[in-house]
Every structure is written in C-alpha cells, then in structure tokens.
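Table 4 source record.
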Amino acid sequence: MLPVAAAASWDVPAIESVGALAEWLGLNLGELEWFADLKGLGYKKNYPRLRHYYYRVLAKRSGYIRLIEAPKSRLKELQRLILARILEKVPPHPAAHGFLKGRSIKTFIAPHVGQRVVLRMDLRDFFPSFAAARVQTFFRTVGYPESVADLLGGICTNAAPREVWQEPAFGVDRVHLREARALYSRPHLPQGAPTSPALANLCVYRVDCRLAGLAQSAGANYTRYADDLAFSGSEAFEHCVERFPTHVAAILLEEGLTVNHRKTRIMRQGVRQHLAGVVANQCMNVKRTDFDRLKATLTNCVRLGPENQNRGSHSRFRSHLEGRVGFVGMINPARGERLRAIFDRIQWK
C-alpha cells in the first residue's frame, strides 16, 4: 500500500525498518515484539503481571458494557511518543472537534447555534469499533512499511483477555455481556490509551468526509465530537431531516460503525436544542437545572462546609467543583463569574 499523496507534507519521522523502529522507541527487538504483541499472547495466556493493561468493566445506563483499558507506565510512554511525534503531525478533518488542540465542545456546538432544526446522533462502541487492521492500514497510508506499520498498530491496540469478564462486579444482561466479550476480544483501540482518541479521529477521516458531503448536499452543517454527531440547518434541511438519519446510518454501516438509535434526536426551535449537555437554541448555555444544582451545591458548601456535600464520593472534591465551575464559565462567562464568586467563599480545610 502506497502512502497518500498528502503524507509528503506531514512532518513525521522516517522509520524504514523494524530495527529503526526499535531504535526510535528505545527498545530492543524482543521488547518491541512484546509490547506490540502481534501474536496475542497477552490475550491467550493468564499471566496478569505480564499484561500491558489494567482493566475496569463499567455498565452503561442503556444496559451495554464499557471496558476501560488503562496502559501500564512503560507502554503509556511508548504511546505518548507515537502520539506526539506521529499522530499529532497528521491533520484531522475540520469537522472533528474532540480531543484536539484548539478545538472543544464550544467549537463543536458553535455551527449549530440558532439553527431551525438540529439533529443529534450517537455512535455505539466507538473505540472498540476500530480493529487493529484498520489502525495498521492508517500507519501504512502515512508511509511506513508494512512490518513497521503492523508493529505501531500493535502498540496502539489491545485484545482484552478472557479473565476480564469472568467476575463482573454488577448484574448485566447476558446477551450484552456476550456481545462485549466478542467485541473486546479482537485487537482494537483501547479506551484509556493516550493514542486512541487521535487514532479514532484519523481512522474516521473518510467517514467525516462522506458525512460532510451528505450534509452539504442537504444544506446542513456537520460536526463531530468523538462519538457525538451533530447536523443542523434551516428550512431546506428541515424538509428532509426525518429521513436524513437513515442515510447517515447507511454510510456509518458501510464504514464499520453502528448508530445508537436510542439517542437519535431531531430538535426544532420549539424545543430545547442541546448537544453534549449544552443548550444551543439562541446562544450557547448550560442547562438551567445543571446550573441551579451546581449553584445549590456551592451555596451549601459555603453555609455547611464542603465535607458533607461530596455525595459523589469524589477523591478530589475541590478540583471536581472547580472544574465544573470552569466549564460553566467557558460556555457562559457571566454565569461562570457568579459561580466563581460563591466558590471563592468556601472554607476548605
């Protein structure tokens, strides 16, 4: 496979052999093969101390399962090097706004503020949907030889071992558990690795191109924040918005992605139009209920002390509250200042 023409302008390191890759990563050949684990030994062998990831199984409200795969320190260092020296040098699609420097939830929502109709869609099992073969193909299009691309892909992907699912700490539907085991047992992008968000954005580049073209043909705007898709437009888009999700789902299915149809919403001006928890009707704003709840929590912290207000058992409650205040300030500076004034009056021990 030849690199894409645009790769000639990307400032990525030239790595022409497996030996050069090992030297670039500061490894010997044996360590390189062990971290890439192309033979899947970490999946097949029950040796927890030799595995490269910590695992945590979470149940979603919908009944589906999410697996957090956090790489151990040495592998994380290798992934951060690949992220900084290779992945961040490749430009993402303009419609992508998640996990990117200079882009945020605000830039994701901004094109949809004040629109006549907003369509929100959600992708199911976003990170594990990208198989190792797809990741390795990306590295080949960058310009790396097949042997180098396969090893880079191996370092950035993982297959969850069988033992992760033997004793889930919660009740879960057997069908969903079986589906999750099948999905995570193949090499995929692990949710928790520093390289996964950037690789997901780059692997979904063609999807963004197709959806942006589809939106343009319907007179709509299109942006994506990780697995959240947003479309909006005026009268022309409103006339076709009812059947538009079907065309989007068909494109995603062709690209190996699945829509979570339960989260599809068509929001006209007469209702609250919200994306990623932010209201977008006339201007960007946080939900009134979220603002009132946070304001009440801060006020109770001032009156009664913060010790009894940590109902979520956050280990760093002060940082948690400060982050929520900062988020409100980013979306609505005036409201953020009001909350910041209350936060500054809290007496912390």
